[in-house]
Amino acid sequence: MAYFPMFVDLKDEVCIVIGGGMVAYRKIKALLEFEAEVVVIAPEFCECVRSLKNKITMLNKSYETTDIKAAFTVIAATDDINLNTRISKECRELKIPVNVVDKKEECSFIFPAYVKKGAITVGVTSSGKSPIISQRIKNKIKEVIPDYMEELVEILGDIRDEVQLSFEQEEERKQVYKQLMELGCLKQGKLTKTDIQDIIKKIKEN
Ligand SMILES: C[C@@]1(CC(=O)O)c2cc3[nH]c(cc4nc(cc5[nH]c(cc(n2)[C@H]1CCC(=O)O)[C@@](C)(CC(=O)O)[C@@H]5CCC(=O)O)C(CC(=O)O)=C4CCC(=O)O)c(CCC(=O)O)c3CC(=O)O
Ligand SMILES: NC(=O)C1=CN([C@@H]2O[C@H](COP(=O)(O)OP(=O)(O)OC[C@H]3O[C@@H](n4cnc5c(N)ncnc54)[C@H](O)[C@@H]3O)[C@@H](O)[C@H]2O)C=CC1
Question: Which residues does UniProt call coiled coil (predicted)?
Answer without folding.
Answer: none
